[in-house]
Amino acid sequence: MTAAITNLAAQERMTPDGYAVTVIAGDFAARGELSFERFLSGYYAESIRIIHEAHLTDCTVADGDQCATCNAIAVGLAGLVAEERVVTAGEVTTNAAH
After folding, report:
1. Comparing C-alpha atoms, which of 45, 54, 46, 51 is closest to residue 7?
2. Concatenated DSSP letters for 4-42?
3. Which has the closest alpha carbon to 40: 3, 85, 91?
4. Fewest Cβ atoms closer than 10 Å to its Cβ: which of 4, 31, 69, 75?
5. Which residue, 25, 10, 21, 17, is CA-closest to 67?
6. What does the domain layout of the chain look like in residue ranges?
7. CA 20 to centroid of chain Cα atoms
8. Could you read off the pLDDT of 74-91 as tens digits, one per residue?
9. Is this prediction's pTM over 0.70?
10. In sequence order, what are the residues at sequence separation of 6 or more whose Cβ sits closer than 8 angstroms to the Cβ of residue 55?
11. What's the pLDDT at 16?
């Protein structure tokens, strides 16, 4: 059995930015619970996780360089983290303005 080697630079690039997660979570909370279900379905979440795990070993971009796949995964993961933060905190509210 061989162990997969994780590209640490790729892992760092794919880590969601805390500010972005907070902004996305606030936007979702303002729209209500159903926006979560529509935007981040279970299939979407699982797809992002599978792609993330696969790309950790496949990314060949060096530290300090940009990787479009890593950046896209970071955006997807930020959405997932924002959803989890709002749902677990019970902050989902209905905003009559939307």
Report:
1. 54
2. PPP-HHHHHHTSPPHHHHHHHHHHHHHH-HHHHHHHS-H
3. 85
4. 4
5. 10
6. 8-89
7. 10
8. 888 888 888 778 777 765
9. no
10. 10, 14, 69, 70, 73
11. 76
As a whole number of angstroms, the distance between CA 78 and CA 25 comes to: 9
Sole residue written with tokens 């979407």: 44
Greatest extent of the chain over all pairs of C-alpha atoms, in Å: 56
- Crossing angle of helices 18-31 and 68-89, in 10° steps, is 50
Confidence of residue 95 (pLDDT cuts 50, 70, 90): very low
Amino acid identity of residue 65, one-letter, is: D
Dump pLDDT digits (tens) for 31-52.
Answer: 766 666 666 566 677 778 888 8
Residue type, 33: E
Average pLDDT over residues 90-95: 51
- Residues 85, 91, 93, 98: what is their CA dihedral angle, to the nearest 10 degrees? -50
Look up tokens 């529509």; give the residue: 38
Q: Whole-angstrom Cα distance, residue 28 to residue 49?
A: 20
